[in-house]
Write a sequence for this structure.
């Protein structure tokens, strides 16, 4: 096979430094001339942009351009040369094309090589990833030496860039329904387990959600201020981590770690929260606290009370805990306090933020619950009940959410309400099933919501 210097003239574009797979690139470019349908066969796993040689990459593009117009099973070098010369003449092709003799030699080499084209395409891909990896290292070095180095922003950006390099390509291919219908039959007679669902802590919610929250879901819990959405979010985290041993991360942008731990202890020990805050818990309460603390301390519940949270920062934390602790649930309190990606207006910022959160849930296979504020719409209605449309920037949030739970308590507006102590979970959106309104009991003095049956 020809050497690199045989292949390129003085205006060639092969790069001598860094990882390269020039022989593999020659084979792949030659193979698609002999078998143009390889372009379709490799499409799911291979990106021609990973071909480092500009000239060989344009061979691929030329074959792709003309293969639909030629009826024969192969595209000879003369047709490829004519297409590239035409592109060069119009300025569309920025580098000199391979000469006709070079294309002829390349074509001859393909006659026995194209059967292994997929193997060589994988070599090209791996080499391209290595080049990007080295380039990122160079960029990190420059950032670290810069006088303007920002540890929070620069480290988060580097982590995000590394994720982009490491993230697997989409290798999915369409499947015939006959190949997947068997799974539906099996699921119809096999109830989901805790390995497949995250219990919510509420019987009726678990029934409605077919066993609990699923991996990849984005769940929105929304309410007006002082309705107890932080308490409910923490309740979901307690149900998962403390009662079911599911690794959980609670990101609090509002409450500090002392307030979080007080709320957890109050709910688990059933000791009045104001007694804990005042330091006047009696001996019986202390005994309950001691028993509860033993269970709490063994739970895989991670709390973070940082006042700042962005998508790159969250991604870094999630990636680490998925790898080291098997993280399955993340609760964020709350959406409007997160740092949104910059955009032309607030609605576009929230759209980027919620889309990023949904993609993160799918990518890492976790459930992501975000708490959110409602606008003043409920207060302008006679019954004060919230609607999904009351979400601030509701279009973007509602579109990306798999589940929307609206929290409503009549006694928050009317202390003399006959439904004092009750709370409604209004499931306003449920992508995988039906919606419903579920009534629970609100025990604010214990910092918790509980099933009505337990009262």
């Amino acid at each position: 096979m020809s050497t690199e210097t045989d292949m390129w003239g003085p205006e060639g574009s092969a790069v001598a430094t860094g990882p390269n797979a020039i022989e593999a690139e020659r084979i792949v470019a030659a193979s698609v001339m002999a078998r143009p349908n390889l372009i379709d066969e490799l499409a799911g796993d291979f990106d021609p942009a990973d071909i480092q040689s500009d000239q060989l990459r344009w061979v691929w593009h030329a074959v792709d351009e003309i293969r639909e117009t030629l009826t024969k099973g192969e595209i000879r070098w003369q047709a490829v040369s004519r297409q590239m010369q035409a592109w060069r003449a119009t300025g569309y092709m920025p580098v000199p094309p391979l000469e006709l003799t070079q294309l002829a030699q390349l074509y001859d080499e393909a006659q026995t090589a194209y059967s292994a084209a997929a193997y060589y395409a994988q070599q090209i891909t791996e080499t391209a990833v290595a080049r990007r990896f080295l380039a990122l290292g160079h960029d990190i070095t420059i950032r670290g030496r810069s006088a303007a180095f920002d540890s929070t922003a620069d480290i988060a950006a580097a982590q995000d860039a590394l994720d982009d390099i490491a993230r697997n390509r989409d290798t999915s291919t369409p499947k015939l329904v006959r190949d997947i219908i068997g799974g539906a039959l099996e699921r119809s007679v096999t109830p989901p387990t805790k390995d497949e669902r995250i219990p919510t802590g509420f019987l009726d919610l678990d029934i409605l959600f077919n066993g609990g929250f699923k991996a990849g879901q984005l769940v929105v819990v929304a309410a007006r201020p002082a309705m107890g959405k932080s308490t409910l979010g923490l309740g979901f985290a307690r149900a998962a981590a403390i009662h079911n041993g599911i690794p959980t991360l609670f990101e609090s942008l509002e409450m500090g770690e002392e307030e979080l731990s007080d709320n957890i202890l109050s709910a688990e020990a059933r000791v009045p929260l104001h007694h804990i805050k005042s330091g006047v818990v009696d001996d019986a309460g202390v005994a309950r606290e001691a028993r509860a603390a033993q269970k709490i301390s063994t739970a895989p519940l991670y709390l973070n009370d940082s006042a700042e949270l962005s998508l790159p920062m969250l991604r870094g934390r999630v990636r680490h805990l998925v790898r080291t602790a098997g993280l399955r649930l993340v609760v964020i309190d709350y959406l409007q306090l997160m740092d949104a990606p910059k955009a032309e207006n607030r609605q576009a910022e929230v759209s980027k933020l919620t889309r990023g959160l949904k993609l993160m849930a799918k990518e890492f296979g976790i459930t992501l619950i975000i708490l959110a504020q409602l606008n003043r719409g409920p207060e302008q209605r006679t019954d004060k009940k919230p609607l999904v449309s009351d979400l601030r920037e509701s279009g973007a949030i509602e579109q990306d959410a798999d589940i929307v739970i609206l929290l409503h308590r009549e006694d928050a507006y009317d202390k003399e309400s006959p439904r004092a102590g009750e709370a409604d979970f209004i499931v306003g959106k449920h992508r995988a099933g039906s919606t419903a309104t579920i009534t629970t009991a609100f025990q604010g003095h214990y910092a918790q919501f509980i099933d009505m049956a337990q009262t």
User: Anything to note?
Assistant: The longest helix spans residues 117-145. Residues 1-16 have pLDDT under 50 and may be disordered.
